[in-house]
């Protein structure tokens, strides 16, 4: 069974997936979050979506890029959340 996060849940999902704590997801972290959400994409589909989500081509997915890819999958309804973490 898949768990569909709402817009308010996405920062939490992103933080849990961000194992490095650097506010960005590499391909492995992205794959882990997909598995946690119950998305069963093939390795090729995951790679393809990762590359499409990485709009600034830095090799990572920021929270904004993550939110955008989740929205394209219909998984991020509701108001825009502030983001994963606020650092002072």
From TrEMBL:
The residue ranges of the EF-hand domain are 5-40, 41-76
What InterPro entries does the record point to?
A: EF-hand-dom_pair, EF_hand_dom
Please provide, alphabetically and separated by semicolons, the GO molecular function terms listed in this UniProt record: calcium ion binding
Q: What is this protein called?
A: EF-hand domain-containing protein
Instruction: Return the SMART domains for the record.
Output: EFh (SM00054)
- Organism, by scientific name, is Actinomadura syzygii
């Amino acid at each position: 069974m898949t768990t569909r996060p709402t817009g308010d849940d996405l920062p939490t999902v992103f933080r849990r997936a961000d194992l490095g704590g650097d506010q960005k997801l590499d391909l492995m972290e992205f794959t882990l979050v997909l598995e946690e959400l119950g998305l069963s994409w093939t390795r090729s589909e995951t790679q393809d979506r990762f590359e499409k989500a990485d709009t600034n081509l830095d090799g990572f997915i920021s929270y904004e890029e993550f939110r955008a890819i989740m929205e394209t999958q219909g998984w991020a309804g509701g108001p825009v959340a502030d983001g994963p973490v606020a650092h002072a």
